[in-house]
Amino acid sequence: MSKTTPATPDAPDAPVGDQDLGAAGSQLSTAPTESLSVPALGVIGWARWFWRQLTSMRVALLLLLLVALGAIPGSLIPQSGTDATKVADFVKNNPTLGDVYDKLGLFHVYSSVWFSAIYILLFVSLVGCIVPRTWQFVGQLRSRPPGAPKRLTRLPAYTTWRTAAEPEQVREAALALLKKRRFRAHLAGDNVAAEKGYVREVGNLAFHIALIVLLTAFAWGQLFKSEGNKLVVEGDGFSNTLTQYDDFKSGNLFDTGDLVPLSFRLNKFTGTYETNGPNKGTPRLYQAAITYSEGAYGKAHKTLVKVNEPLEIGDAKVYLTAHGYAPLITVRDGKGNVVYRDAVALLPLDSNVTSTGVIKVLDGYKNAKGVSEQLGVSAFFLPTYTKGSETASTFPALNNPVLNLTPYHGDLGVDSGIPQSVYQLDKSHMKDFKDAKGQELRENLKPGQTMKLPNGAGSVTYEGTKQWANFQVVQQPASGWALAGALTAIFGLAASLFIQRRRVWVRAVRGDDGVTVVEMAGLGRSESAKLPEELGELAGILYDQTPQPTDDTHPHPTPDPQVAPSEGAEK
Asked: What CATH topology corresponds to 144-195+499-543?
């Protein structure tokens, strides 16, 4: 058996060999054949030229790069769809730059004209690439591998030997061997033609189709998505209607009728923390015990919602995103009548859940003179109070809770028609209460303690502490399609990178001296050391299956199964 002889362009028979190799290597790629002719002038000609450019792989890669670059400002610049407050602050602090960003659509990147144009062009480009490639690949699957070139010595991997077997026997043995190795093989005249590695093209097409699925799923999810947050205190509930949300945002084509009918009640929130060591105060367990039901008359079920373990109902997922404390407050007027009793949710300021908020008594309160007023109480809460650290909690759990209250009376401004936050107090029309020393009234209360308002104006009692949990209800259509597309793209890309498509030919003919000459050659889509190795292994097996010539005048070299490309002529 001789060693492999690669193609040598300077050989005397190069033109004939190159022509044969071109025929043998045809259709190893599913890329559509591009014409080098310049389009004819006119609308149709230019349209055809533009379509060829748009559906070329290089333009598809360029558009994919532009989509990735376009997503960068969407991550670095505040977006109006996710946080309009940050956008307003940015414009206020940077008026000139903010005006430029606004004109370029950088505050709403994913719905801007330029990003949508790139997105649509990429979609069209991928479709234009895939359709002809798929059609051509189907044609290749329906056809047989082409016959061997006239000169197998011109192929990258080549070997030959002589055998006493008849040419028909060699071809039959080669056909059986190649089929056993999962080659598509058939007899083509005096040779056996075989091909393997179609999974490479399947993976290539699957990768591009998966990109289309990803683009479609992403666009569909952005157009029909919804996302809302709701803070729920222990004992309270929530129904999935638009008016129940604290904040809500959705896609351009979302309709409130698409909200999944569900409701739940927060029974208890449980949080545990590391008590010592370098991770002191780090949460160990966050879970909310809820009772939920599907639909208006669904059966009630109990479950636990944990961080990264959402409740899934239909297309909606309910995530646990935050937690805090809600002191239970009772307010009485000068006559001792209860005018307010509720758990007031306070917002955390740090990792130890130092919290702040406002208690607003809008109706029913009358001062000592019987005049109707409104009360506003600023609240500052420390779950774990430690002497010497009066301004911040030292641990997130309720080890030594203290509630600091500062009351005001007057007009809260809620009747002006201007919306205001429930966590902030407008003091422009409010007056503070004075203590016995003429200072602003402010007291620290522990659970069960009461702060008396001066001059018989009433009292405020801190009765205990409840906990609250913030839930995020997300509806993201086509998320399953996006996941399937991503996985398919990964496996398709792996197949197109690691699987080599190759062809093998075995020619067996009777020589001038009557002894059968066997030639074996291989051709791959790309250069790879595995092709010569595979050809050497196949040649070694086929050599062992055929009897060797006994005539000493026709010696036969021992075959070397490790076939590798090398320079030089056949030995």
From this structure: TATA-Binding Protein (3.30.310)
